[in-house]
Amino acid sequence: MSTSPADPHLPTVHLRPPRNWINDPNGLVFHDGHYHVFFQYNPHGPQHANMHWGHYRSPDLITWEPLPVALTPTPGGHDADGCYSGNAVSEGNRMVAFYSAHRNDRWWQPITTAESSDNGRTWAKRPHLLIPEPPAGTTMYRDPYVWRQDERWRMLVGSALDDGRAAAQLYESDDLEHWTYRGPFHTSDAATGTGPIGWECPQYATFGGQGVLILSDWTPQGGPSHTSVIIGQEKDGRFTAATALVPLDHGPDFYAPALLKAPGEDRWLMWGWAWEARDDAWAHEAGWAGVLTLPREVSLTADGTVAQRPARELLALRGPRVLYGTGHVSRTEPVELGQVSHTFDLTATLVPDTTGTSGLRLITSTDGSEYLDISLDPTAGRLAVDRTHASPDTRARGGAYTAPCPAAARLHTPVELRVIVDRSIAEVYLADEQVLTLRFYPSTDGPWRLQARTTGTGRSEFAVAAWNLTPQDIRQEAEPAPR
Ligand code: FRU
């Protein structure tokens, strides 16, 4: 029932088809008793081109069923060169998808729609564009996000303005068909020349009276792209920020996340796109690129922080516990904790020594030369994930990345870590709050092992448990898409 793909880097519990290119999660919606996850998909190769919407569904966030490709570019149509990102809503027995219609001869993507009455197996595109023109003064425009609020439908569209600001544009509708432009919901401050020049994939969730707005930076000059989040209140179609924009994920390989409101619960789920941290030639050789993150629960803490943790359902992926270790470590000798498979879930409680950094090393080669370091620096108040020695192939990117510790973790007090590794992706959660996602490409097929380590002169305490995760049978190719 389970599959373990031969490519040692192809994840086994994260969603993606066995081959070819994927990017953004799209159209996340609960419909007909299933979570539906669509995604940007090129069924013809491992590069960004000719985007379709691939499709998976799950009754429980654990078992996933690939469904036929949902949206395919129509030759000669508005979306002839790509069905770009958007979302979907469940309305009676229909699923209605909103997406960005891409043509190579047009610099912006008008909003269009398609609907399905058979739970997403077949889709009928409406012939006309829903929003044929962006508002005046817009220089980039795409990625509709539709939600229901106060008995009306709302839509945000990512954009850039000709004065250099990034914006999320707001529309409203009573029937999903006729949309009225309400103006910019939120814009960046006046252009500084350093910030993003546009926002892609805006997403919006509410928690009581608070709104959480997620924005992915569009930096076409090849600058670093990342995703930020801001908390505030909406009134009369305008969002007033109560906080600064802060990174949503502190890792280098996370972008364009999308939200899904769990049915009948006050719970928001989120998937992101983890892109490759290796060069295009290698991705081409491997025949695939990109993976969706695991589903995360997004919440707002009492002190107004956007917190993330793995969806609680993921505990069901755990097999028997393979490792448990508790004790202390000093700088003279790391403590061997034991072996894990290449797809595992780990919890650690660390009481770091304040004179140095303390944490875990995942060793992925027999000689110990390849490793990923996850450590806490209690004095600086930082979590660091260092992949400098994690990928022996020089075509992979290295570097160390940090996330701020929540206030409580800065002292000499226990810090909770949760780490989920799936072959070439690591999602590192700090205190069920901050998260850092990165990709790495170990060379070996041998056993992996974990160590507790410290650089401090005192003692660091730890309690670590790990479970191997059961590979999921999600590798069937989606039904071939027509060319
Ligand atoms: C974000 C994005 C979207 C666009 C899609 C195209 O990664 O650039 O703005 O709709 O990807 O694949």
Automatic annotation (TrEMBL):
Q: Which SUPFAM superfamilies match?
A: Arabinanase/levansucrase/invertase, Concanavalin A-like lectins/glucanases
Q: Boundaries of each Glycosyl hydrolase family 32 N-terminal domain copy?
A: 14-310
Which InterPro entries does the protein's record reference? ConA-like_dom_sf, GH32_Enzymes, Glyco_hydro_32, Glyco_hydro_32_AS, Glyco_hydro_32_C, Glyco_hydro_32_N, Glyco_hydro_beta-prop_sf
Which SMART domains does the UniProt entry name for this protein? Glyco_32 (SM00640)
Q: Which residues form the Glycosyl hydrolase family 32 C-terminal domain?
A: 339-445
Keyword hit for Cytoplasm: no
Q: Which family does it belong to?
A: Belongs to the glycosyl hydrolase 32 family.
- This chain belongs to the protein called beta-fructofuranosidase
What taxonomic ancestry is recorded? Answer: Bacteria, Bacillati, Actinomycetota, Actinomycetes, Kitasatosporales
